[in-house]
Each structure stands twice: as structure tokens, then as C-alpha cells.
Amino acid sequence: MVAHSEVGLSHVPGDTAAHRLYARHGFVETGEVDDGEKVMVPEYGDG
After folding, report:
1. First and final CA of the chain: distance in angstroms?
2. What pLDDT, in 10s, does the model give residues 1-47?
3. At CA 18, angle to CA 42 and CA 3, rounded to 5?
4. In this predicted structure, what is the pLDDT of residue 47?
5. Whole domain around residue 23: which residue ranges?
6. pLDDT of 5
7. Is 2 inside a domain boundary?
8. Residue 15 lies in a domain
9. How many domains does the chain have?
10. 3-class SS letters over 1-47
11. Which residues contact 42 (CB under 8 A, 6 or more apart)?
């Protein structure tokens, strides 16, 4: 079994519906762009 320590996703710039959906579930933009898409990762709290 392979363990992963990070999860992320991306969306096409301008896809506000996707951005709102992901943000509502705790994802934030990293500032990175992968293959023309904005990268988002979960924002974890201190707990």
C-alpha cells in the first residue's frame, strides 16, 4: 500500500462554480498553476 501525505485538486481559471464548491469544503488556492489550472489544497487547522 502507498501512503500519501498530501491531497489537492485544480480547476480552470474562471470556473467560479468549481472554485466556490472547493472553497466551501475547505480548499484554498496555493498560487500554483498546473497545466493551466489553479491548484487548491485543503486548509488544515492547528488541531
Report:
1. 26
2. 677 678 899 999 999 999 999 999 999 999 999 999 999 999 976 54
3. 35
4. 46
5. 9-42
6. 74
7. no
8. yes
9. 1
10. CCCCCCCCEEECCCCHHHHHHHHHCCEEEEEEEECCEEEEEECCCCC
11. 7, 8, 26, 27, 28
